[in-house]
Design brief:
The protein is mostly helical. The protein has 5 helices and 2 strands. It has helices spanning 3-21, 48-68, 83-87, 96-106, 125-137, and strands at 28-29, 88-89. It has a two-stranded antiparallel sheet.
């Protein structure tokens, strides 16, 4: 295939993938969400949850927000760079954070089939575990006040 044909195929695949993960009408922010507060702090003064949140936010910024940030890019159907973005729920009551965790676990994200410069990078096993764990426990909580 030639360059324009490959690009057309890629855009078609991205559109099809977006249609599969696009959220139905009637999405609304999750209300009454509470973030778990850690019972104790580590030696550095930061709680383990805050350290995990900072690491998860770093991974999101480095590996995800290239497409799923503001503004959206490369066919991404939605942003998830803020806690409000991640807290949105679909008509079935499933949070975007849970949908994100599922897509990461299945290996659907990041979308390695998209040809960009620099290339899309896969997640390491550690990054995958950090993101999925954080998304399922506190990914809809407000971002930490400060991360190093």
């Amino acid at each position: 295939m030639t360059g324009p044909n490959v690009l057309s195929l890629c855009l078609l695949l991205v559109g099809a993938a977006a249609a599969c993960v696009a959220e139905p009408e009637g999405i609304h922010p999750l209300t009454g969400s509470t973030a778990g507060s850690p019972a104790s702090e580590g030696a550095s003064g930061a709680s383990p949850a805050a350290v995990d949140a900072c690491e998860a936010m770093r991974i999101l910024a480095e590996k995800c927000e290239r497409c799923h940030g503001e503004p959206l890019a490369h066919g991404a159907p939605f942003s998830f760079s803020t806690s409000d973005d991640r807290a949105r729920v679909d008509a079935k009551g499933v949070s975007r954070s849970e949908r994100m965790a599922q897509a990461i676990e299945r290996g659907n994200m990041p979308a390695l089939f998209i040809e960009l410069e620099p290339p899309v990078e896969s997640l390491t096993d550690e990054e995958r575990d950090t993101l999925v764990g954080w998304l399922r426990t506190s990914g809809t909580a407000s971002e930490p006040a400060a991360c190093e």
